[in-house]
Amino acid sequence: MIINFSCQGGFANLQIAFSVDTSELSESLSQELIDLVERSHFFELQLQQAAPKFSGPPDVFVYELTIQDANKSRAIACNDVTAPPALRPLLARLQKLALEQSSNSD
Amino acid sequence: MTFNRCFCNRCMCQFVPPEVTANLAKAGVETAQISARASNQQRNRRKNKIVNLSTLTPSAKVGHAMRKIYDSQHEWEQRVELVRSEGDPVNSDLVVNKVYDYVGIVRDFFKKVLNRDSIDNSGMDLVLNVHFGQKYLNAFWDGDEMTFGDGDGEIFVGFADSLDVVAHELAHGVTQFTAGLEYKDQSGALNESFSDVFGTAITQFANQETADTADWLIGDEIMGPRLYGEALRSMKEPGTAYSNSLMGKDSQPSHMKDYYSGPKDNGGVHINSGIPNKAFYLTSMDIGTDKAVLIWYTALQRLTPTTDFNTAVAALVDSARLLVREGQVPCGSPQVVRAAFKAVGLPTV
């Protein structure tokens, strides 16, 4: 499974990203991410009208997430107001991984 | 005849710029709002906004500026449990009490200092959600209420623990109900700057500080142990608030020569806000923060959603002139405002 994630904005104006092929991760982390994707029902989320990618409510995070798995691929973008609760644990975990990656990049 | 509509003045939930949709479709990205059926949060919010317009007039009082604090109980939902309303006794949760007190300070500042009756100037109730999500690293205004995360305890601590942050978020509501500044490019940077202006002015007011004694930092109280000593923005010296591996270096310019013109951050709303922020600092150092914020608030009511920096400068100078005539600010205030903006490269020609 290939995951491309970015998060920008917020009160702190974070600009972070995390891209990974889960097959290259430790078994535990790989399984954790696969489970989170599964529980989020990422590929089945019902998305309604297009929301503005920009000009969103003040200080919300804007998330972009693309996941490729076997023959499936999907890209979505949402923000703190439009993100469904089911997707939240995955977004939070990816945000943490992105921050850890930023922290280790020096 | 009865009409029903969304109640908020400038409802963002109905705004779908066609060019955005088209661009995203080209990019193969489903930028989307989740189905109301799939989200109790969205559904409840909309349900709460259905009102009978026949009972309202534009100037009708719609509330009494009551504070309502909800505990999200670490769920990713708003309004999970109402834990303290206006006049309720102290709660066992210190965060609830702190945010209750802080939003009271902000409400009272707008009322007593700026003669504004809550966010909408019609006594709108103040709804705040605390403990939102799990280790959520943010606070935001969503168009009708404020939401605060607890942070992760490492990078950021509780966002509701900062008067700066609470005032900043509530001020976004005030901007929405006055100028309605679009949250992108220069109007978005002004939107952010006005929130920082009110955030710092209210903090100085509450702490009985002056322009000379204030630290002019935004967000310093929410920096966790890994970023201790840093802040998110400096109004005094934009671009110097932080430099670390987690967040990089503070990219705020303090002058138009360093203006950010790229696409990130909605066209630099948190970045270019450093320019008008610096002008507010310079003005405050000359005539005092209490006088400067009066000018800024007066100008805010004269701006429009697409106001750019140059237009804002003109409105601020005009407002200073108006307030001089009313005897509310010192005689030289228009010149002070003009000089402050000249120092940051505005207006541009």
TrEMBL record, chain A:
InterPro entries: Emfourin (IPR049457). It comes from Oscillatoriales cyanobacterium SpSt-418. This is Uncharacterized protein. It holds the Pfam family Emfourin.
UniProtKB/TrEMBL annotation, chain B:
Belongs to the peptidase M4 family. Residues 68-176 form the Peptidase M4 domain. Residues 179-345 form the Peptidase M4 C-terminal domain. It is an enzyme of class 3 (hydrolase). SUPFAM superfamilies: Metalloproteases ('zincins'), catalytic domain. It is found in: Secreted. This is Neutral metalloproteinase. GO terms for biological process: proteolysis. Its cofactor is Zn(2+). Its EC number is 3.4.24.-. Keywords: Hydrolase, Metal-binding, Metalloprotease, Protease, Secreted, Zinc. It comes from the Bacteria.
